[in-house]
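Researcher: Structure prediction, please.
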Amino acid sequence: MVTLAEVAQHAGVSASTVSYVLSGKRSISATTRRRVEQSIRELGYHPNAGARALASNRSNIIALVVPLRTDMYVPVMMEIAMAVVTTARTHGYDILLLTGEEGPDVVRRVAGSGLADAMILMDVELDDERLPLLRETDRPSVLVGLPSDTAGMTCVDLDFTATGALCVEHLAKLGHRDIAVIGEASAVYERHTGFAERTLDGIRSRSRELGVRVLHRPCEGGYDAVALTLARIFDERPGTTGLVLQNEAAVGPLLTLLRQQGRAVPEDVSVVAVCPDQVAVQAPVRLTSVAIPAQEMGRSAVEHLVAKLEGHGGDEIALLAPELVVRASTGPAPV
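Model: Predicted structure follows.
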């Protein structure tokens, strides 16, 4: 088993310096801290959790609040969660995963019990009822998502407003003037979940600027729900030639239904998706898409939180720029 003294020798510092890096009791230069952290990783050093907690008056645990709902695409949530777990371990923190739909009660429980030193919250709503309690507690926190009021908050997210605008720009450049959005389940919009609302805002705003007509329809996912949604779209807007899809569960059913209806992709209908790359490239037609950078979001959330715990991180809004990858599902609008 690697000892603290061996880490100190490897990093070329004193044992007390390694101890201060681990405990955060004294200010250590960024260069020295990075050298010590590198040695910890290379040697595989694992400090005694009980001793470290007693010395630092910390639990060395981060609470990750992930309400798992049936209307959300769980694989993306879990990919973010795994990135949080692996990044936290490189900084000597363990993760307490809280998956219940407890609302403000979960913040109250973590803050009042000493269960964790800090919190990362996911599934953020525009007017999230957990935020007033977060602002009152002395526990550092980071949101994976963007509420309407970001005052006193640190937030990490994909820039979903820019994502929506990018999807419309791509279709408009190809000549599409009637676009439909197949969105998340109705409950996601009823909760005013940030990512879905912001994507829609970006789509609508850029569409107005470009003179593109947009029809938005929520969709529960699954074959029957997608069939009903698609029928409504073409009944209300028969001239629709472009689809923006923000519902991973609808990808397979949508492409199957378009094929059954004799609508070729992209010759008759172009499809742009907001989804993980894996979903886009494994679809029956490789989808033009904006990827969800789940791992980067998870890593960034932990890095911002650790900076706060170490006393040198402030409130910040970190939005990741979207990137659209053109594949086989988009082409010029039919004449």
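Model: Residues 160-291 form a domain with the Rossmann fold fold (CATH 3.40.50.2300).
Researcher: Thanks, that helps.
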